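REQUEST FORM: STRUCTURE PREDICTION
Request ID: SP-0412
Submitted by: Lab K.M.
Chain count: 1
Length (residues): 100
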Amino acid sequence: MAALPRERLRRPLPAVRRARTREDLGGLAPAYLLVAGLDPLRDEGIDYARRLLRDGVPVELHHFPGGFHTIDVAAPTATFSRRALADQAAALRSALLRVR
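STATUS: Completed
RESULT:
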């Protein structure tokens, strides 16, 4: 695989530049979002999912009530963590099969 020129690496892709402006998020890749009920970023994640949907980006949003930020790291064998990891793996598997 050929390396990208240095100047290209410093410039974000057009879709990423649009996302930073917080206006039109159309053109971004499909998203998988997981939010936990006790996560301080929960509302921000849900809002981001809504904005992506509004702009026509496919979104898969998973909400885990009762979970907290990084619970999968703090308690990797907990039911919540195992289920979240299984859901993430399934979403990734599905996305990769669509690319084939």
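NOTES: Residues 79-99 form the longest helix (21 residues).
Reviewed by: T.R.
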